[in-house]
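Worked problem 6 (solution included).
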Amino acid sequence: MEPERAGEVLRFLRLAGRLKETPRAGWALRGVERPESVADHSFRVGLLALVLPRGEEPPLDRERCLAMALVHDLAESLVGDITPYDGVSTEEKHRREREAMLGFCAMLGDDEVLRLWEEYQAAATPEARFVKDLDKLETVLQAAEYEASRGAELAEFREMGEARDWLPATRPLHEALLRAGEDPPSA
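Solution. The predicted structure is:
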């Protein structure tokens, strides 16, 4: 790797590393103390992408799912975790995030992260729709964990999960999560 390219990759990694310090805004808005970071969330979405897509019909490209899970919230390292309560329109949020992704592409000299992010945003492929489901599933799981471990009241996330039309690949895990919530935790 050329020194100039190495410098740009390092710059990219430092910017992306901001996700480790960016709290998930939705939890903070609901009074969850020390909420997970965006990087924490993306990590578990990636783990879900690693373990779930086997044997699906149509077959899913697991490597593509993993890559998409890694980049789905990458723009938030520059624009922050914008929520519907921030007074930013959906169009403006998308514009800001796309601009951030274009900047990453310029740094890396490659537009693959932008292509993955746009595919995810548009839910343009089975992989993108699957990763969108994983994103929601991870959020519902995190809400259940915050309710159990911190006594947080996050029923809206449970209700969002119950109302969602889950894909066949993610439905069984959501159903297992619902069943686990009905059973008291064992010691």
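Discussion: The two ends are 51 Å apart (CA to CA).
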